[in-house]
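Appendix B. Chain record.
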Amino acid sequence: MQEQINDKTVALSVKAAKITGRLLAKAMQDFLKKAREPTYKKGKQSIKSLTKQGASLSNIEITGDNIGDFKRIARKYNVDFALKRDDAESPPKWLVFFKAKDADALTAAFKEYTQTKLKVKEKPRPNFLAKIQRLRQKAKELAAPVKHRTKGEHEL
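C-alpha cells predicted for this chain:
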C-alpha cells in the first residue's frame, strides 16, 4: 500500500531590516496563534453553529408574517441568532434562538421591530399611483391653455 502524504505550505511575510531566528520564530508563533483561534459566524446561522460557540441559548417566539424585517433589524444590532420554524400550530410560529449574552441587544432590536410594525399599522401608506394621478390633475388645472398660432401670426 502506498502512504498518502499531505503537504501544506504557508506563506509568511515579515517586514524587518534584519531577519533573525528569534524574529522568524516570533512571526511563526503569532501566525499559529491566530490560526488556532476558532472563527465564529455572525448574524443569522444554524442552531448547531450557535451552540458550538459555547454560550447558553435563549429563545423567543414570533410570528412568521414579517420575518424578513426582523432579520434586517437583528443584523443592525449585531445579534447572533438562529431561526427555527415550529409547524405544530396551524399558523406556523418561528422560534428565534440567540445567545444569552446578546439578550440586551435583542431586546433593543425587538423594541425597534415592534415600533416599526406599530407605525405601519397606524398610518397606511398612500397609493403611489393615485398620488401621481392627483398631481397630474393639479398640473392640468394650473397650466395655462396652449394657444395654437396660425402661419404668420405673432404674439405681442
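Further analysis of this model is presented in Appendix C.
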